[in-house]
Automatic annotation (TrEMBL):
Species this chain originates from: Moheibacter sediminis
Protein's name in the database: Predicted dehydrogenase
Pfam families hit by this protein: GFO_IDH_MocA, GFO_IDH_MocA_C3
Domain of life: Bacteria
Domain spans labelled Gfo/Idh/MocA-like oxidoreductase N-terminal: 2-118
GO molecular function: nucleotide binding
Domain GFO/IDH/MocA-like oxidoreductase: 153-216
Length: 321
């Protein structure tokens, strides 16, 4: 079992602590939180060992799980990597693309593995259809959340939209050609609602909307490709796959048939996969353990996290235009 330590014991950090403690792939050594009052509270309530310094925790483990505010990701990652420890970094990977690129270089130099916590890649609905998403040409996503003061220190693009950016980049195998975007600050000092149109070199277009001031929560993506429509509901954890094929000469009574202006007839049918339940955060942590133990590439690499961050900042820059 790999020895793991958690940096940060806030809301998400406590979830990581609980799941690492449950996992049969990790031995939870303990955690570090700079807020001594919170550290004592977490240690007393859950029994996890609290370390006095970051260095002491890093020295005691094989894997450092960094669940700290984004501003501190780079420094935490740098210290862990230089001690030869593998790193799991919550999203976004760092506060800037430059910091993220340096993390990549350090990981290569010290021969350690890194994974970024883009948890929607492990959402059971997305996992169930990812292999069916092939050469999508139009993508539409809505990620809407009710207002929560936690996270409003960064634009909604880095808080929410980056989840969809990463998922889209994982299925569109083409470089980004152009980005148009707009964002509006309503409650916070940074944009609370944003829309981006990403055009790829292969002709694919992704239209992404994110809001943290909505009256209800929604996390949906729709993928359109030749002869197929694929819908993913990340919140409800279900998906729908609608496909088309050449219509039979003699359709059945219940067959759904479409005929276009040229007289071409297509049959519509459903190809919905099973969606086995899972805990996405536990899955991403354990997939990282597998990558370390088997010396394979993590599912969400440091490069993936950096590219998602790069596009996120290009969207934020597009607001100003």
């Amino acid at each position: 079992m790999l020895k793991i330590g958690i940096l940060g014991a806030g809301h998400l950090g406590k979830i990581h602590l609980k799941l690492a403690n449950q996992s049969n792939k990790y031995e939870l050594i303990g955690f570090y939180d700079p807020n001594s009052e919170n550290a004592k509270k977490v240690e007393a309530e859950f029994g996890y060992k609290s370390f006095d310094t970051i260095s002491e925790l890093i020295d005691a483990v094989d894997v450092v799980d960094i669940v700290t505010p984004t501003l501190s990701h780079y420094e935490c990652a740098k210290e862990a990597i230089k001690t030869g420890k593998h790193i799991f970094l919550e999203k976004p990977i760092a506060n800037s693309v430059e910091e993220a690129e340096e993390i990549i270089q350090l990981a290569k130099e010290y021969n350690v593995k890194g994974q970024v916590g883009h948890v929607e890649r492990f959402n059971p609905a997305f996992k169930s259809v990812k292999d069916k998403i092939q050469n999508p040409m139009f993508i539409e996503t809505h990620r809407l959340a009710e207002f929560n003061p936690r996270g409003t220190d960064v634009p909604v693009v880095l808080d929410l939209m980056i989840h969809d950016i990463d998922a889209i980049l994982s299925v569109v195998k083409s470089k980004v050609k152009e980005i148009h975007a707009s964002g509006v600050a309503v409650i916070s000092d940074s944009p609370d609602i944003a829309n981006a149109r990403i055009e790829f070199e292969n002709g694919c277009v992704a239209n992404i909307t994110s809001s943290r001031i909505s009256l209800k929560n929604m996390r949906k993506s729709r993928f359109f490709q030749k002869d197929a429509y694929i819908s993913v509901d990340y919140l409800e954890k279900n998906c729908e796959v609608v496909k088309m094929k050449d219509a039979p000469e003699k359709p059945g009574e219940w067959d759904m048939i479409l005929q276009n202006a040229e007289g071409v007839r297509k049959q519509i049918y459903f190809d919905n996969p099973d969606v086995p339940p899972n805990n996405a955060i536990l899955d991403e942590l354990e997939s990282f353990a597998n990558a370390i133990n088997n010396n394979t590439t993590p599912i969400v690499t440091l490069e993936d996290g950096t590219e998602a961050l790069r596009i996120a900042y290009q969207i934020i820059d597009a607001f100003k235009k």
